[in-house]
Automatic annotation (TrEMBL):
Residues in coiled coil: none
GO MF: long-chain fatty acid-CoA ligase activity
Organism listed in the record: Streptomyces griseoviridis
Keyword Lipid metabolism: yes
Stated family: Belongs to the ATP-dependent AMP-binding enzyme family.
InterPro entries linked to this entry: AMP-binding_CS, AMP-dep_synth/lig_dom, ANL_N_sf
One Gene Ontology cellular component annotation held by this UniProt entry: membrane
Name of the protein in question: Acyl-CoA synthetase
Domain of life: Bacteria
Chain ranges of the AMP-dependent synthetase/ligase domain: 58-468
CDD domains: VL_LC_FACS_like
Alphabetical keyword list: Fatty acid metabolism, Ligase, Lipid metabolism
One Pfam family named in its UniProt record: AMP-binding
SUPFAM superfamilies with a match to the protein in the record: Acetyl-CoA synthetase-like (SSF56801)
Length: 641
């Protein structure tokens, strides 16, 4: 059995206070600059047991507690108790064993964010297997590569179409001997197939596992070449989730209401998997939403009514821009803008009070916020289900202004930073002590160091043991000295808060020798309601420029509000009024940087970057080399003459 989490009463980190006593980071300086920050762990390390034990631990401790909710075909949510979930995990694990899968075998899962994903994860672990997530949107080449490289012996797809599309590749996958389809009820059939396997056999398999046992191979999104399989252990997940649960106590241990999380980010990404495990570990009601389309997601949010959401900045930007567009359509844009400005000031005042640099919102600001709450803020919260008070946000920087807006609107943002190699978060915003525009402190138990060239290095229990390399016989160490080089650039302030400044491999060096980090400019412009994506370029060029794509919904709204004829957005790329709006956005972004780093020219592309065409990874990161190749003519046009 796994080591239990400390309770509120038993944990040394908690006294009579409503949450943990935050421990300030220990910092080390070099030449007067903070180069390293460390936060001691809040949770003890797990010395024995595995993730496979969690459903059974829950069933033994609180059999009737609701730990998940399962969405039925008619859209209703049915609660699943700890005892019921453990029984389902046991049954499916026995089915996998009956099918001949042995400890250490790799089971690949290619599905959207569904209840079955989490069930298969825990069932596979209970059977001693290693799970391998595959994005449903991956190309056939990417799917084949992951299945070949991982040596997966079995694959579960969500749909018949996914299984059929893989048909021509099966001859190249000799290790893959079993294929199951969720929509054909094969998970239920697995449970039936294992009926003859004694329950004790699952106990034997679980007993073979420990914190150092491989739990999953998660393949990186591959922005710069072929994806690599990150070998994450059960201990990596425990180090991550146990400290996150203790630190983010308002999310996982809320008093006075039942905490719940609706997960809609891909389960194929480590971010979503980590939060699913954390919910099971902390017994927080977990739901799964397979579609990000507003027509599908909004009803799920309204029916499930989560207290916390897991998201990326792109979605928070879309929520804000959609709310602003709706207000403008109704002739209330000035009201929305005043409400937004009030929320930003209120969020910044809260930050000042919590960090000891100010007295908090004054009477006038509190009155203004109260007036705008029913007009604007409550509607934004209602769109998220009505009960959301917390959002865990990662993947890319959110930006200070938007973070302050949501804080002022009554939604606390926990912004974090991490990679697949760090089992998701390496840093996170501490409760009640935000530093807007940063990605917080090191997660408890984690060290963050800034190398001489600005690269972020991470050490801690959640850092992967290595990369999967079947040619080398298994796992090849990724951080032999204990420090993992992230490839990202950043800086630590005097109090240990981390700011991300760019990506090392994406650093541009202009012909004049100026180093330019494109991320701050790209993130700022991407938040504009008319802009979908932005790629800043200028490596070995005389100046910095940008490729911009249009947001279809935003441009359609702009066209209607400005009396333009109903034409597709791609026909508006040369519209002088639209370009004037975009130029103002570029001018605002340029205020973030010095003149040599500023965008001198930009071009609007007639189509968006898509994952389908290889321009974006499944986690919405830019594949720069592919974009520059496919839009080479537009790039050269930026430097012609």
């Amino acid at each position: 059995m796994s080591t239990p989490l400390p309770s509120f009463a038993a944990s040394a980190a908690y006294g009579d206070a409503p949450g943990p006593v935050l421990v300030e980071p220990e910092t080390r300086r070099l030449d007067g600059v903070v180069r390293e920050a460390y936060v001691p762990p809040l949770a003890p390390p797990v010395r024995h047991g595995s993730l496979a034990d969690l459903p059974f631990d829950n069933a033994a401790a609180v059999p009737g507690a609701v730990v998940l909710s399962r969405r039925s075909a008619d859209g209703r949510w049915a609660d699943v108790t700890a005892a019921e979930f453990a029984a389902q995990v046991q049954a499916v694990a026995k089915g996998l064993m009956a099918e001949g899968l042995v400890p250490g075998d790799r089971l690949a899962v290619m599905a959207r964010t569904t209840y079955e994903w989490t069930l298969l994860d825990f069932a596979a672990w209970a059977a001693g297997l290693v799970t391998v997530p595959v994005y449903p949107t991956s190309s056939l080449f990417q799917i084949r590569w992951i299945l070949q490289d991982s040596g997966a012996v079995a694959l579960v797809t969500e749909t018949v179409a996914q299984a059929a599309a893989l048909g021509p590749e099966l001859d190249r996958l000799p290790d893959l001997t079993r294929l199951w389809v969720i929509e054909k009820d094969h998970v239920e059939r697995l449970a039936e197939a294992g009926a003859a396997v004694p329950d004790a056999e699952v106990g034997v398999r679980r007993g073979m596992l420990g914190p150092d046992t491989l739990a999953t191979l998660v393949y990186t999104s591959g922005t710069t070449g072929r994806p690599k399989g990150c070998a994450l252990t059960h201990g990596n997940f425990f180090a991550e989730v146990d400290n996150a649960i203790e630190l983010l106590y308002p999310v996982f241990k809320a008093k006075g209401e039942e905490p719940s999380i609706l997960l809609f980010l891909p389960m194929s990404h480590v971010f979503g998997r980590m939060v699913a495990v954390a919910c099971v570990r902390a017994r927080v009601r977990l739901g799964h939403a397979p579609s990000l389309k507003p027509a599908d997601l909004l009803p799920d949010l309204a029916a499930f009514r989560p207290t916390c959401l897991l998201t990326i900045p792109y979605m928070l930007e879309k929520v804000y821009n959609s709310a602003r567009a709706k207000a403008e359509t109704g002739g209330r844009s000035s009201t929305f803008d005043r409400a937004a400005a009030t929320a930003v000031r209120y969020g910044e005042a809260l930050e000042a009070r919590q960090t000891g640099t100010g007295g908090g919102p004054g009477r006038g600001l509190r009155t203004a916020r109260a007036c705008y709450d029913p007009l604007v803020y409550r509607k934004i919260r209602a769109a998220m289900g009505g009960r959301v008070r917390h959002v865990i946000c990662g993947g890319s920087p959110l930006g200070r202004r938007l973070a302050a807006f949501y804080a002022g609107a009554g939604i606390e943002i926990y912004e974090g930073y991490g990679l697949t190699e760090t089992t998701a978060a390496a840093t996170v915003t501490p409760p009640l002590k935000p530093r807007l525009g940063t990605v917080g402190w090191p997660l408890p138990g984690t060290r963050v160091r800034i190398a001489g060239d600005g690269e972020i290095l991470v050490a801690g229990g959640q850092v992967l043991h290595g990369y999967w390399d079947p040619g080398a016989g298994g796992v090849v160490p990724a951080a032999p000295d204990g420090w993992f080089a992230t490839g990202d650039l950043g800086a630590l302030d005097d109090e240990g808060y981390l700011t991300i400044t760019g990506r090392k491999k994406e650093l541009l060096i202009t012909a004049g020798g100026k180093s330019v980090a494109p991320a701050p400019l790209e993130n700022w412009l991407r938040a504009h309601p008319l802009i979908s994506q932005c790629l800043v370029l200028g490596d070995r060029r005389p100046y910095v420029s940008a490729l911009i794509t249009l947001d279809t919904e935003g441009v359609t709204h702009w066209r209607r509000m400005n009396g333009k004829h109903p034409v597709p957005p791609e026909l508006l790329v040369d519209d002088p009024e639209l370009r004037a709006v975009l130029q103002r956005a570029v001018d605002e972004a340029n205020k973030l940087v010095s003149r040599p780093e500023s965008i001198r020219r930009f071009t609007v592309l007639p189509r968006d970057f898509t994952e389908w065409e290889g321009h974006l990874t499944p986690s919405m990161k830019l594949r720069r080399e592919t974009i520059l190749r496919d839009f080479a003519q537009a790039v050269e046009g930026l430097y012609a003459g």
